[in-house]
């Protein structure tokens, strides 16, 4: 197994934004991790015109409607497909890196639309004389291990590029450690990361990145380790070395990869009112339209306009905690007062409604009604695994941690 151990060498402050990157030497790292046997490929439906498929990969911030528009296809056709397919969820929850394919007739009209619905099946929607017909194809996928390591000199994306990692893998890495590391403010020059992950292949062709199986992130000299583990009920989660889930009740930041423009303060000069005023939240500068995520599971207590806050969503979390999201350009579709919200769910989009001089999210965190600084608040930890589950985790995680240690050591040597 080849490990791409490369780093960015450029002066400047560490950040998550994309910048130009240099490269480092490639090192060989042996892997001794046993994976489940690859599924046996099943017979697939014949595809006599596979060469005629036009493939499009989802970029960050792109929607399925945007893909259809780029293909010159009407939104009405997309709505018809959404109504006709049994796999609507696969089309309404798309992620960067996903691939969709379009097949045309000689006259340019759409003959078929293809997408993946999970790991084991592919869906083809045929457009025949205006009617829609859905066909399900079984998929024979193989997973191969890959490793990467990098050091941040200026940019997380730059270091990831040098290590051969995709944007989607950077997002996945940030999500794994997002409960403990604020990627908007905590990154430092010299921070290091190592990860072991899957690459998904079909019939010898690489399709996409798979899941991170194990990762290490050294941030400000503090080492964070994550090991992916399958629980007895089939759910997957990431755990630290003590068998404690990395998942916490609240995300550290509700906007991915944004810049903090104003911190929690007992008094600051208000940029619009021009007088000293307490700032009981944190402002995250981000482009208009950037998705705003719910910091934790909760219920919508308020959705509407609040004076200088502009468009606001307030969430209640179990009666004790409350979070507020202000200056939104718009609310997420379907969000209503009383709705149950999942952690990480999009509840609105960054804007500058109300008293704001530029697009940003104003985020407040309250405990029993009192404002607290969300950047310094100690988030409650989850309970560790116990009994047989803990024993299984220790056995499964020991090999992964050993490989991470080896990868980290090789990366340190390569950096010298």
What's the Cα radius of gyration?
23 Å
Number of separate helices: 6
The pLDDT mean sits at 80
- Helix residue percentage: 10-25%
Strand-residue proportion: 35-45%
Find the count of extended strands (DSSP E, 2+ residues): 24
Shape: globular
Quaternary form: single chain
Structural class: alpha+beta
**N-to-C order of helices and strands:** EEEHHHEEEEEHHEEEEEEEEEEEEEEEEH
Largest sheet: 10 strands, antiparallel
**Head-to-tail CA distance between termini:** 23 Å
Name the poorly predicted regions.
Answer: 1-13, 19-51, 264-276, 412-416
Detail the topology: elements first, then pairings.
Elements: E1 2-5, E2 27-28, E3 53-57, H1 64-70, H2 75-84, H3 88-92, E4 99-104, E5 110-116, E6 121-128, E7 131-138, E8 141-151, H4 156-162, H5 167-177, E9 192-202, E10 205-219, E11 222-230, E12 236-239, E13 259-262, E14 265-269, E15 276-279, E16 282-285, E17 291-293, E18 298-305, E19 311-317, E20 321-331, E21 340-341, E22 346-350, E23 360-367, E24 370-372, H6 387-415
Sum up the structure in keywords.
single chain; 416 residues; alpha+beta; 24 strands; disordered N terminus; disordered C terminus
Short summary of the structure?
17% of the residues lie in helices and 37% in strands. The chain contains six helices and 24 strands.
